[in-house]
Amino acid sequence: MNVFFRDFFSDPVLFLSFGILGTVIALGIFYVYYFVKKIQEAEVPS
């Protein structure tokens, strides 16, 4: 496990891959929350 962390911080490709993947997942979670919140707050036309 120690080798993984050493390689993770010394290899920029691996570091950027996990960083970009984390950003994409965080944006996906944000947009799901945003749209669900907007749907719940929407007024239904009668």
From TrEMBL:
Alphabetized UniProt keyword annotations: Membrane, Transmembrane, Transmembrane helix
Transmembrane segments: 12-36
Protein name: DUF3149 domain-containing protein
Organism: Pseudoalteromonas holothuriae
